[in-house]
Amino acid sequence: LLGVHIIADICVIPTTGKTSLREEVAQAVAILRETGLPVQVGPFGSVIEGEFDAVMAAVKRIHEALHAGGAVRITTTIKIGSRVDKPQSAAEKVAAVEEVLRAPRASEAR
Fold first, then answer.
1. What are the respective helix, strand and coil percentages of the chain, to the nearest 5?
2. What does the angle CA 88 – CA 94 – CA 98 come to, to the nearest 5 degrees?
3. CA atoms of 11 and 1, how far apart (whole Å)
């Protein structure tokens, strides 16, 4: 998908034997940020926007780094959205929903 812009929601869960994974999560987020692409960190994953191959390369680097750091297993869940009709960022998607929520509903206008 060369040149296709995507928005990806990524959740990486390394198996380390520890209860807290904040160090590993921080390492994964740092790798995403190193791409220079827009990244939004959330409580259960991170959203990254960019060219398909660049995003997937970052996921690969995360796996390589976490395995090298001692994670025996890693489970990664990725949700990917792409569109080719027009460019749209994650922020624009959220703003579109917020706009609908701000608009008066037909039942409220009566």
1. 45, 30, 30
2. 130
3. 22
d(CA 11, CA 28): 10
Tokens at residue 63, please?
């796996």
Which residue bears the tokens 């034997």?
17
Report the C-alpha gap between 59 and 61 in whole angstroms. Answer: 5
Mind listing the pLDDT tens digit for each residue in 28-79? 999 999 999 999 999 999 999 999 999 999 999 999 999 999 999 999 999 9
The reported pTM is: 0.86
Q: What are the tens digits of pLDDT across the range 81-110?
A: 998 888 889 999 999 999 999 998 766 665
Helices of type H across 48-89 = 52-68
CB 7 within 8 A of CB 80: yes
Q: Do 79 and 11 form a contact (C-beta atoms < 8 A)? A: no
Task: Kindly state the tokens that stand for 26.
Answer: 């921080």
